[in-house]
Amino acid sequence: MSSIDFSGRVAIVTGAGGGLGRQHALALAARGARVLVNDLGGARDGSGGSASAAQAVVDEIRAAGGEAIANGASVTDFEAVQAMVQQAVDAWGRVDILVNNAGILRDKSFAKMELADFRLVLDVHLMGAVHCTKAVWPVMNAQKYGRIVMTTSSSGLYGNFGQSNYGAAKMALVGLMQTLSIEGAKNDIRVNCLAPTAATRMTEDLMPEDVLAALQPEAVVPAMLVLAAQDAPSRTILCAGAGTFEAAHITLTNGAWIGLGADAPEQLAERLAEVTGRSGEIVPQSGAAQGSNEVGKAMARRRG
Question: Is the pLDDT confidence value at 196 over 90?
Fold first, then answer.
């Protein structure tokens, strides 16, 4: 079993002033990476800000013999994010790893949620990851190497009451990962998603104490390290929590050809179990797989 080593690599971890991001930064540094620790230092809902959280993690890394620098940019500010990436390049000459971890919560049922809270969560989670990825993309393309980890969530993959904004943002990151992994492949930029279950200030009042005790953030870190490593996969959604690791897949069923007859809606309703049946389902390599399946069935029907 070969050791996962990040010696000579440069990593940026957003939202790394505490919780899961802090553990990501510490683990990367412990395995040799030079780490830019980014954190706005705001509250869980995104309000406020202080550079002290990021600096505390930097001090921790340096005390252990590692190299790190602090950054207090908001991921919602693209110009500040560009300056953050330049800060890493100026310090160390490259950026090899980006862990998009920054996030906030503004939970409420959809009926009670203000649109401003919906937009802000999308802005931080989705556009924040877009900003950071856009800023590192030319650097990674030029050096022909990059590893990007998007932080998705089971709330996006499968839904969770009171988190329509958070779930929408987190599922959008999966779609972003799917396309960027295709576009980045020619220059060895591998893009993956991590769906963590961890006890942090984001979840401290959402679960019982004994459950929180089992969900230490450290238990998620191995999945991040694998997704950020030189031998990382690409287009993989790893789920992690309490020492268990799973994978999530966006699949396509084999489906059924029904045609364009006047009774097509009734036929579809009648055969819905066949259409949704998972026997023979695939994990498409691109969005073209859906059209290929549909046209293929139509052409086969025509020939028959």
Answer: yes
